[in-house]
Amino acid sequence: MSTEFDTLTTEAHRPELAEIDRRSTLEIARTMNAGDALVPAAVAEQLPAIAAAIDAAADRMARGGRLIYLGAGTAGRLGVLDASECPPTFNTDPGEVMGLIAGGPTALVEAVEGAEDSKELAAEDLARIGLTTDDVVVGVSASGRTPYAVGAVEHAAEQGALTIGLSCNAHSPLAAAADHGIEVVVGPELIAGSTRLKAGTAQKLVLNMISTISMIRLGKTYGNLMVDVRASNEKLRARSRRIVTLATDAPEHVVEDALNATGGEVKHAILVILGEVDAPTAARLIEESHGHLRAALRRALDAPAG
């Protein structure tokens, strides 16, 4: 095991930091910040691989597939976090983007010993949610060797699902097992082996990209506006009005009328204003355009008058 760990950059020791505990707090903070600044560059090196994975994922999701993250420890928690943010941001169903962590919900707040070492547990978790060939399974592991993450990708591949492996070591078993391997090599941590630091930051950045850009590809935004927001309280109703105003530059009363006519549906209200159609027509055009507002707007503007 020690020989195996010696080959992992995420586990490497930085001898120049052997007496970091004797430095001032400001010096330690500066050292840590300097290391963190290297993470975006490491992610940038993987952008072609990330983009290819996202395009493939969006294709599956457009067919009704789910985006499913699996990981253990910090990696698993990051997947659950990213998944949990999709419903409020993109109005997705909670089942559309899911995060599964080795050991179940208890592992979100405390260590569940041994859970990460089981490939079989990953297969069981995926079977429990009814994995399909349209689904996208993303195994997340800083080392790229965690059995739970590797097992998830291997089982998903056997079932015909699309697989993505995200790790922070080169030549990882996780990336090798996946259709799309993403290896963001951030180097040794400030505290040797504490992969919640740079590795965790790198994983969070990539997961942000996978979920956000997939949603853009699926028509969940109009430009950089969250047009699939659903107004369930006053704050969200105010946000809806602001989004429609930004998208259309229409006066307040026009925005209010459009939102009232469409039952508060932001996409429909924007189409009513920009496409100069009534609410039922807006709903039909958006459905025919599979939820893509720009495509619906083109249909509205290209339609013959009268």
From TrEMBL:
Organism listed in the record: Streptomyces triticirhizae
Active site: E85 (proton donor), E116
Record-linked InterPro entries: Etherase_MurQ, Glucokinase_regulatory_CS, MURQ/GCKR, SIS_dom, SIS_dom_sf
Miscellaneous note of the record: A lyase-type mechanism (elimination/hydration) is suggested for the cleavage of the lactyl ether bond of MurNAc 6-phosphate, with the formation of an alpha,beta-unsaturated aldehyde intermediate with (E)-stereochemistry, followed by the syn addition of water to give product.
Its job: Specifically catalyzes the cleavage of the D-lactyl ether substituent of MurNAc 6-phosphate, producing GlcNAc 6-phosphate and D-lactate.
GO molecular function, a single term: ether hydrolase activity
Pathway: Amino-sugar metabolism; 1,6-anhydro-N-acetylmuramate degradation; Amino-sugar metabolism; N-acetylmuramate degradation; Cell wall biogenesis
Gene Ontology BP terms: amino sugar catabolic process; N-acetylmuramic acid catabolic process; peptidoglycan turnover
Keyword Lyase applies: yes
Catalytic activity reported: N-acetyl-D-muramate 6-phosphate + H2O = N-acetyl-D-glucosamine 6-phosphate + (R)-lactate
Recorded name of the encoding gene: murQ
This protein's name: N-acetylmuramic acid 6-phosphate etherase
Keywords: Carbohydrate metabolism, Lyase
EC number from the UniProt entry: 4.2.1.126
Keyword Lyase set for record: yes
PANTHER family tied to this protein: GLUCOKINASE REGULATORY PROTEIN
